[in-house]
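Before going further, learn to read the protein records used in this course. Taken together, the tokens spell out the fold as the letters spell out the chain. A record is reproduced here so that you can trace the correspondence yourselves:

***
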Amino acid sequence: VAGQVLDTLHAPATMDDLREVHALKTGAMIAAACRIGVAAAGGDAAMEEAAKAYALKVGLAFQIRDDLLDVIGDEAVFGKPIGSDAREGKCTCATLLGVEGCEREIRRLTDEACAAIAAYPGSAFLTELAETLASRSK
């Protein structure tokens, strides 16, 4: 909720602002799910930290992809009007990093997310999930 409030009421204008919004919005939601999974499986503190790191990076990569799709996506596939952020004058990762910069950042974050959990058994599913989210078109 805090991320949504910051996003709508405080108009983030820098990458640091956007990282904070996305960490408190999508990142926090994914991190909660991952941490609950660790707790339910009886994981330790190190596993919980790895899950949290994975989730925050996947959440940010997801949001950067979302910003990018608002610029380069296919409206019929994406399911919402393309260019709506620009029309609203909203500062996004695409605005600050450009298309190529967003692609590089998504790749970096996805690689770091996967590395955070690589040592744990069963990480293949989460790695595949991160890769799927990083390359999504909707």
